[in-house]
Amino acid sequence: MLSKEVQLEVNRGAMLPLMEEFYTIQGEGFHTGKAAYFIRIGGCDVGCHWCDVKESWNAELHPPTAIDLIVNNASKYSETVVVTGGEPLMWDMSLLTQRLKNLNLKVHIETSGAYPLSGSWDWICLSPKKNKLPTETVYNNANELKVIIYNKHDFIFAEEQAEKVNPKAILFLQPEWSKSEEMTPFIVEYVMKNPKWRVSLQTHKYLNIP
């Protein structure tokens, strides 16, 4: 149970339930291969059965951390910072992104879009989930749409999401890791027939890095 003072700081985004932070190579989507500092925020109620960071779901397991400390750590490593989760938009991202941008850092987010957009972002990666569809603010502002392909029906979902996202968003199909051997050939075939899409792979897992 958080104290009233800490809860107020969390509510305004001055403290966030930090799960982990690390410097690595971006493994997915448009910025694959670039060095970036990742900030993983705890808390998610979307509940994907194939999620590979289910330990992020319960925000109470990840104590509120002052954003000044988070920003200071991030500034030591990279000019690009990626905020991920969990679902980071469960929290107000305004103060965190403002502080990062004050240091001239490029600030990216990876989100399911299930909550309204907060914060100021240089790049928004929207990875929608069937359990809890994105809000209009995220559809309208996403720079890339990354749909995870677990089975063949997900291609239908991908096209539905492509219709809703803004026309400037770059479209990616990515095999769910446990199904990559099975689904990647179908994704390759689909992209060749529908070249508005691109293939995304979880290259960090092939590289055996976080």
Automatic annotation (TrEMBL):
Report the Gene3D superfamilies cross-referenced here: Aldolase class I (3.20.20.70)
Sites where the protein binds [4Fe-4S] cluster = C44, C48, C51
Q: Does the keyword Cell cycle apply?
A: no
How does it associate, per the subunit comment?
Homodimer.
Similarity comment: family membership: Belongs to the radical SAM superfamily. 7-carboxy-7-deazaguanine synthase family.
Any idea of its EC number?
4.3.99.3
Q: Which reaction does it catalyse?
A: 6-carboxy-5,6,7,8-tetrahydropterin + H(+) = 7-carboxy-7-carbaguanine + NH4(+)
List, separated by semicolons, the cofactors it needs: Mg(2+); S-adenosyl-L-methionine; [4Fe-4S] cluster
Residues holding substrate: I25, Q26, G27, R40, T84, P210
Q: What name has this protein been given in UniProt?
A: 7-carboxy-7-deazaguanine synthase
Cofactor binding, per record = Binds 1 S-adenosyl-L-methionine per subunit. Binds 1 [4Fe-4S] cluster. The cluster is coordinated with 3 cysteines and an exchangeable S-adenosyl-L-methionine.
Q: Per the UniProt entry, what species is this protein from, by scientific name?
A: Flavobacterium micromati
Q: Which SUPFAM superfamilies match?
A: Radical SAM enzymes
Please report a single Pfam family linked to this protein.
Answer: Radical_SAM
Residues annotated to bind S-adenosyl-L-methionine: W50, C51, D52, G86, S127, P128, K129
Q: In which pathway does it act?
A: Purine metabolism; 7-cyano-7-deazaguanine biosynthesis
GO biological process terms, semicolon-separated: tRNA queuosine(34) biosynthetic process
* Gene Ontology MF terms: 4 iron, 4 sulfur cluster binding; carbon-nitrogen lyase activity; magnesium ion binding; S-adenosyl-L-methionine binding
Keywords of this protein's UniProt record, alphabetized?
A: 4Fe-4S, Iron, Iron-sulfur, Lyase, Magnesium, Metal-binding, Queuosine biosynthesis, S-adenosyl-L-methionine
